Amino acid sequence: MPAILVIEDNPATAEEIRLELTRHGFDVQVEVNGVAGLDLARRPGWSAFVVDRMVPHLDGLSVIRTLRSEGISTPALVLSALDAVNERIDGLRAGGDDYLIKPFALGELTARVEALIRRPASGPQTVLRHGPVEIDLVTRVARRNGRDLELLGREFQILEYLIRRPDQVVTRKMLLEDVFGYRFELKTNLLDVHVGRLRRKLDLPGEVPLLATIRGTGFRLDANA
After folding, report:
1. Is 0.85 topped by the overall pTM?
2. Is the per-residue pLDDT at 225 higher than 60?
3. Which structural domains are found in the chain, ordered by start?
4. How many whole angstroms separate alpha carbon 184 and alpha carbon 204?
């Protein structure tokens, strides 16, 4: 059972994260301040860290910097309400492997933790690629064959979700829960509107379509261009 250390001082958020990760088979321990969290993180056996940026006594980025300076390379997911580009850059440069902006969907957090554990220990991965498509997680820029896609926030989130699951059918339920944060059946065409906008920017006339609709199921990002 993979062991996850969560350093988060908000009790409600920490408990939600603990329950979500435990439900997916992780052994989770929570610490509420940076000093105690750093001490616990130094112990061997952790599969990943989930670290809030603004924990008391010692901020989350200082915790990660200290661990990296001591040769501890366990992957770390940084949580923060700060979403400016320079804030994400600071988080990744401090040694974080991924950066998740609050508020977030719990399903997305779980997917990112799972991805960190699967990832080879070769340093932070800030650019994701699939076929002719790439997204930069720091600058939040997406491109197809070098062409900037100029995506809005939700469109970028949907594309990131798809590119992390290449050539896999992603159901409507997965997107509504993990990207939009809905835990109930939605009776509007909200998802279709966002996917439609993303498709028009991703697949221009004359280009091989990459974003496929799987009738009755969901969507798939192909890489056959």
Report:
1. no
2. no
3. 3-118 (3.40.50.2300), 127-221 (1.10.10.10)
4. 33
